[in-house]
Specification:
Elements lengths: L20 E4 L7 E5 L7 E4 L14 H9 L4 E4 L14 H23 L11 E5 L1 H12 L8 E5 L5 H7 L5 H6 L7 H7 L11 E6 L8 H10 L7 E5 L15 H12 L1
Pfam family, one: BD-FAE
Protein name: Lipase
Organism: Asanoa siamensis
C-alpha cells in the first residue's frame, strides 16, 4: 500500500525546531519576531496567518521558517497584535505593527547575528512571505510602506486579498468584521486603508500562489485582487495550483512546497 500523504493541518500543531533568537521591535508583548539564521542572502520576513486572530500566532509557521533557513535563507517570523477577547489588534493597530516590525527587522536580525557570531543577512531590502491573513498583510505592506522601507519582493500564499468579498463570504465567521469593525458600508475608511490593492506600480516583484481547492480562503479572492491590482501594476503574477488546499503552502512536506521555494528564488533574481 502506498504511503499516505501527510495531513497538512498537522503543521499547525507539530512543534518546530526552536529559533536561534527572539528580537523585540516595540514595547507590546506581541512586538517580537523569531529569528532563524541561514545564509547571507536578503532577510526573509514571514507574516503568519490565522485570520488576524489572537488564537493563532507565529508558531504555526515555524516549520516553514526552519525549512527556509535550512535552505540558506535568514528568516524572521514577525508577530503582531491580533483580534479577539482581550486582544488589542484590529484596525489600525495590527497594520501599525506590521509597518514597524518589517521596517525594523533587518537591523535587529543583523544585531542578533553579530551577538551570536553568525553571518548577518545581506544589506538589502527584505523579502516578504505571508500566508492567508499574513498574505493580505504582506501585500498591504508592499502597497503602503514608505519608499525607503519598501521590500525587495513579496510572495503571498493563499492571501485574504479582497476584504470586502471576505466579509461577504463571512470567512472564519466574522474575521474581517473583527479586524475592521463591521461592514464595508459602515467603515469605508478602514476598508480603504486596509486594502492591499496598490494605488501605483510597486516596482518590485510580487507573486501570489493559491490552491484551487482551498476552502479556507477561496482562490477567487486572489483572482479578484489581481484584476484590481493590475490596473496599477501589471507585473503582479498569480500561480494557481490544481488540487492544492490552504495549508499545503506552509507545509515543507507537501508536493506544493517546491512551488513555494521556486517562487522565492524568483524574487531573489
Amino acid at each position: 500500500m502506498p504511503a499516505r500523504e501527510p495531513d497538512p493541518r498537522d503543521v499547525l500543531v507539530l512543534p518546530a525546531p526552536p529559533p536561534d533568537a527572539v528580537v523585540r521591535y516595540g514595547p507590546h508583548a506581541d512586538h517580537v519576531a523569531d529569528v532563524r539564521l541561514g545564509g547571507t542572502g536578503p532577510l526573509v520576513v514571514m507574516i503568519h496567518g490565522g485570520f488576524w486572530r489572537a488564537e493563532y500566532d507565529r508558531a504555526h509557521t515555524g516549520h516553514l521558517a526552519a525549512a527556509l533557513a535550512a535552505e540558506g535563507y535568514p528568516v524572521a517570523q514577525v508577530e503582531y497584535r491580533r483580534t479577539g477577547p482581550g486582544a488589542e489588534g484590529g484596525w489600525p493597530a495590527t497594520f501599525d505593527d506590521v509597518l514597524a516590525g518589517v521596517a525594523a527587522l533587518p537591523e535587529l536580525v543583523a544585531e542578533a547575528a553579530h551577538a551570536l557570531g553568525r553571518p548577518a543577512p545581506a544589506a538589502a531590502p527584505p523579502l516578504l512571505i505571508g500566508h492567508s491573513a499574513g498574505g493580505h498583510l504582506a501585500l498591504w505592506y508592499a502597497a503602503h510602506a514608505p519608499a525607503e522601507a519598501a521590500p525587495g519582493g513579496v510572495l503571498a500564499l493563499a492571501p485574504v486579498a479582497d476584504l470586502a468579498e471576505a466579509y461577504r463570504l463571512d470567512l472564519d465567521e466574522g474575521a474581517v468584521e473583527a479586524l475592521l469593525g463591521g461592514a464595508p458600508g459602515d467603515f469605508p475608511e478602514a476598508y480603504a486603508g486596509a486594502s492591499p490593492v496598490p494605488a501605483r506600480a510597486l516596482s518590485l516583484p510580487c507573486v501570489i500562489i493559491h490552491g484551487t481547492t482551498d476552502v479556507q480562503v477561496p482562490i477567487e479572492l486572489s483572482r479578484r485582487f489581481v484584476v484590481a491590482a493590475r490596473a496599477a501594476d501589471a507585473e503582479i503574477a498569480l500561480h494557481e495550483l490544481p488540487e492544492v488546499g490552504h495549508f499545503e503552502l506552509i507545509d515543507p512536506r507537501s508536493a506544493a512546497w517546491r512551488k513555494v521555494t521556486e517562487a522565492l528564488r524568483s524574487l531573489r533574481r
